[in-house]
């Protein structure tokens, strides 16, 4: 069974086009979605999730239209920009009603590990705290597919490393993770496969090991240098 199937998905803005993108994700793997600023990573993730209306293409999760499978998908996309004046405790009560498999123990543990104060409102949270809250919700409803757009941005070092370990553990338990990131450390610590996006085109899908084997040269011995060379090439 394919966990996520994206078939010829396209989206155009006035000055950007996401070319037909197709790929499949398998269970229990972490996929790093990489590409320069403006390559279209967020547009792709939002189009997959139906948060922006794609121009064409199909998206299935667990072999069903994705829209019917939302309770099995956890999402972290940037900050929280709605219900800014509701306490996190109130938001949580409302949110958990949508998920039949909500695990309160897991939520409480994460809030405590992340030192999240549920009496605060989104307006009062730092960037990292907003991400931590979204992660706690995504993990608590025991999603089988996690779609994460730069979830480590804004996290402190301890939370960052903690998250990387948790992502690895979840993948080992069978959860599939699609992770857009600019951080080489995230890829080195977590990614099994890479999806390489450039100017709205999916250039490659390959394992991290394959990527390294293909891109490593005496001038680019480390993954950082390989990615730098690739992005410099993109800009040129
Ligand atoms: N709502 C929108 N209206 C018009 N153009 C948009 C909109 N959202 C994104 N774009 C454009 O689409 C392109 C891709 O943006 P996107 O945010 O998907 O890139 P990204 O790869 O996620 O970049 P970053 O690494 O900086 O987060 C950019 O040129 C951006 O300006």
TrEMBL record:
- Pfam families on file: ABC_tran (PF00005)
Identify the keywords attached in UniProt to this record, alphabetized.
ATP-binding, Nucleotide-binding, Transport
Q: What PROSITE patterns has UniProt attached to this entry?
A: ABC_TRANSPORTER_2 (PS50893)
**InterPro entries to which the protein is assigned, alphabetical:** AAA+_ATPase (IPR003593), ABC_transporter-like_ATP-bd (IPR003439), ABC_Transporter_VariousFunc (IPR051782), P-loop_NTPase (IPR027417)
Entry annotated with the keyword Transport? yes
Statement: the UniProt record of this protein carries the keyword GTP-binding = no
Give a GO molecular function annotation for the protein. Answer: ATP hydrolysis activity
Query: Locate the ABC transporter domain: which residues?
Result: 3-224
Organism domain of life? Bacteria
Q: Which SUPFAM superfamilies does the annotation name?
A: P-loop containing nucleoside triphosphate hydrolases (SSF52540)
State the name under which the record lists this protein.
ABC transporter
């Amino acid at each position: 069974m394919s966990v996520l199937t994206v078939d010829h998905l396209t989206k155009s803005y006035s000055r950007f086009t996401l070319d037909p993108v197709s790929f499949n994700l398998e269970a229990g793997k972490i996929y790093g979605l990489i590409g320069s600023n403006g390559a279209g990573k967020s547009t792709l993730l939002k189009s997959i999730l139906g948060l922006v209306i794609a121009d064409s293409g199909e998206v299935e999760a667990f072999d069903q239209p994705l829209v019917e499978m939302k309770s099995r998908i956890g999402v972290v996309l940037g900050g929280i920009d709605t219900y800014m004046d509701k306490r996190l405790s109130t938001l949580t009560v409302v949110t958990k009603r949508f998920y039949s498999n909500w695990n309160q123990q897991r939520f409480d543990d994460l809030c405590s590990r992340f030192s999240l104060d549920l009496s605060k409102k989104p307006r009062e949270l730092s960037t990292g705290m907003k991400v931590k809250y979204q992660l706690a919700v995504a993990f608590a409803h025991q999603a089988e597919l996690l779609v994460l757009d730069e979830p480590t941005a804004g996290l402190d070092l301890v939370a960052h490393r903690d998250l990387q370990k948790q992502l690895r553990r979840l993948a080992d338990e069978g959860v599939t993770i699609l992770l857009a990131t600019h951080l080489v450390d995230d890829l080195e610590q977590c990614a099994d496969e890479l999806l390489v996006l450039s100017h709205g085109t999916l250039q490659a899908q390959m394992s991290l090991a394959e990527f390294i084997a293909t891109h490593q040269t005496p001038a680019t011995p480390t993954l950082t240098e390989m990615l730098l060379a690739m992005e410099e090439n993109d800009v040129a």
